[in-house]
């Protein structure tokens, strides 16, 4: 039986509406938001409720407010690659190298007990699964194994995932409010080593990521990197802000 997402408080509905517009690029950095009066009329709620939503978005760094002028989408700020969903294609191109991508698997199948537990589903419940290979100058640097919750993204497999990698589609179209990262040192399986064109005895870095929207798990992804070709790292100040 399909489970409905929890009903949001009124102020949170306004926040989600604005966050979604920012997340999918409809409202880019510098875009002027509707006025408080317009948001009150649009949602049929009090000005105090709208004000709370805008105030919390300011505190989260999503928007800026200029007295007597209005509210605007904040400029993007660089973040630690371990504290955000990094775009590996952008990272590779930023180094002046060629980025390559191959979609290996795109399927729907019954979730195993461990995947079901990670995504808060029942064992055997339908789940989306993709496997992708990311290359730098023609050399494999990441094997991405992803599971997606169909309750949250029911049309996931209907997208052109050959042209647009799953991670890019999800970041653009599914706002997330929580991220979990775990990093482990592991040895690849024989199949994984073959896909990554590496010796099976060579260690890998495994980045496991989960994301949530409104407390509901969206995706579980395991990104495997040959340790000799890839590093995971970041630099930031003690206050949590990135070093520019």
Give a short summary of the structure.
By secondary structure, the chain is of the alpha+beta class. It has seven helices and eight strands. The protein has two domains: 10-73, Orthogonal Bundle (Arc Repressor Mutant, subunit A); 88-226, Chorismate lyase, CATH 3.40.1410.10.
Could you characterize the architecture of this molecule?
The termini are far apart. The longest helix is centred in the N-terminal third of the chain and has 14 residues, at 10-23. The chain has 244 residues and is of the alpha+beta class. It is built from 7 helices and 8 strands; from the N terminus they run αααββαβαββαβαββ. Helix 1 crosses helix 3 and helix 2 crosses helix 3 (47-59). The protein is globular, with a radius of gyration of 20 Å. Helix content is 25%, strand content 29%. The protein has helices spanning 10-23, 36-43, 47-59, 88-94, 113-118, 166-173, 190-195; strands spanning 63-66, 70-73, 99-110, 126-136, 139-148, 178-186, 204-213, 216-226. The protein has 2 domains: 10-73, Arc Repressor Mutant, subunit A (Orthogonal Bundle); 88-226, 3-Layer(aba) Sandwich (Chorismate lyase). A hairpin with a 3-residue loop joins strand 1 and strand 2. The chain has a 6-stranded antiparallel sheet with strand order 3-4-5-8-7-6. A two-stranded antiparallel ribbon has the order 1-2.
